[in-house]
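Input.
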Amino acid sequence: MPPMVCLHGFIDTTRTWDLVLPALERRHDVLAPALAGHVGGPSIGDQITPATLADAAERAMDEAGFETAHVIGNSLGGYMALQLAERGRARSVVALAPAGGWAHDDRSRGDLLAFQRRLHELAKAAAPHAEALVATPEGRRRATEYIVESYEHIPAELLAHQIRAVAATTAAPALIDYATHAEWQLDPSRIACPVRIVWGPADRLLPWPAAAARYRDAWLPHADWVVLDGVGHCPQLDVPLETADLILGLAG
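Output.
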């Protein structure tokens, strides 16, 4: 079967793909590596560069024997998917609310990074009580309010896992420090594969359309753009069946 790589977002885990994997695995050989510095992933090392995370993803592809693959990514993973496309490693890309698209004068990037720093600290306090926190509908809504609009179908066990994983992302402070000053760059002239970008207007982390400004205006205005009404930051969790269809509709 054709290879496919799924890249999760910042302080997320490989299990963010749980609800779409059954559909994807029926037609593809799927690799879902943990990002460097995240739970289950390799160390980020002593010095972070613009290539650190993409290099680690590329090594995971090499170890799996994937010279190229259909690459899917959410948030930071969406940006990384496009980095892999720049390197000629992607047959196609589906980027779900990819990070890095803020306009140069958009101060919301700093607000997001400050929020993620607070979220990491809150998760560390909540992790020992994760199962109890998601045992009620109200708790599950609080645990998901920044990532999805529809949460009732997401298993409580998966949500508890995600809370613990956020807390266990020990590289989060270093990655946030780096991202605060990093230049997010993309060279669209080096991306030769088909690209589909999917965004939900209910995204509370990377708000549409402001967080997509450079993708829409400069980098990838001619990509296949899909806007999913009533969907939040993680379409793969919010509307998994529709998201799987969008992925397979491009990847085949």
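The domain at 3-251 is CATH 3.40.50.1820 (Rossmann fold).
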